[in-house]
Sequence to fold (333 residues):
Amino acid sequence: MTAQASFNPKAFRDALSTFTTGVTIITTRNSDGEPIGITANSFNSVSLNPPLVLWSLAKSAFSLEAFSANKHWNVHVLSTEQEALSGLFASRGEDKFAGIQLEKGINDIPLLGNCTARFQCRTAFMYEGGDHVIFVGEVLGFDKSELPPLAFQSGQYALAARKPREGVRLSSIEEHAPECSYTEDLLGYLAGRAHYQLVAFLRTLLQNHKLDEHAFFVLSVLSIQDKLTLEQINHFVAYTGREVNLALMAFLQKQGYVVLEHRDGKDRYVLTAEGREVSLEHVALAKAVEEQVTEKLGAGDTQALKILLKRLITATDPGIPDLWVAEPTEKSA
Fold:
C-alpha cells in the first residue's frame, strides 16, 4: 500500500472548493418506494458515446443503501431559482418532497421541474473512491431549458456570467497612451455610462407624460412610501446628485399627481390616484427597458449583474435610508 500524503483536511477542502461547479439534486426511491433526494456538486460528464455521467456519494450517507440498491436515478441541474431547493435537499430529517409537484419521466424516479437540465439514468458501474462511492450512470433520457444554472464556489452559491471568447471592449483601440490613465475599464466610467444609457431609453418613454427622470424618481419614491416631507423625499433621492425643490413639487401638483397636506404640523406630499396610476405606468416602462436589456444579455447575466450592482451600492452607500421598510428620520434644525 502506498503512503498517503499528509494534508490538513480543512486546507485541502478549501483548495478543492475553489473549483466552481454546478449544483444538482439526485433522486431515487428506496426499497419501500419512498422518494429519496440529495444535493450534490460532484456531478460530471464521462462519455458522449455511450452517454455516461458520474457523481459520488459519501459512504456515511443515509441514502447510500437506496442508491446502491436502486439502479435508476435522476440528476437535476438546478437553476438559479432553486437555491432554496438545494438547501432543503442538503438537510436531514425533513420531508423533502412535501408540497413539490413531481413530473413523470421514463421511470418511476422522482423528477423535479424548473431545472436547467435533467438526466434520467441507470447505474452502469459503481466504484470505491476512498470515503465515497462513485456512481457511473448510463443516460437514458435528458432535457434542458434556458434557465441560468446555479453554481457553487468556495463554500457558497454563485452565479455564472458568460465571458465571450473575444472578450468585451467598448473601444476599438486596445492600448491607450501611457499618460492617459482614464480607460474604459474604470469602474466609475462603466457604471456611469451604463446608468445614463439606460436612463436615455427611459427618458424617451417618459416624454408622453411630459416628465423627466428626476420627476420619475420622485413619483417612484411616493408610490412606495407616501406622505413625505420635502426633506424626506430628498433623503431618498440624494444618490441622484440633484435636489428636489418646491418648483418641481409644484409642477407635479399642477399635473394632478401629488397634493400637499398639512399633517403632524408639517407639509407632506401625498400621491393622488392619478399619480399612482402614472407611477405604475412608469414602472411598466422601466420593466420594458429591463426586458430589452435582458433579451440582449441573457437571464443569467442579468441576474448576476443585479447582484453585483447591489454589492456595489452597499459598498458605496453614503447612508441613504431604506425606502422599503424604514420611516425616514428628519434632520434636526
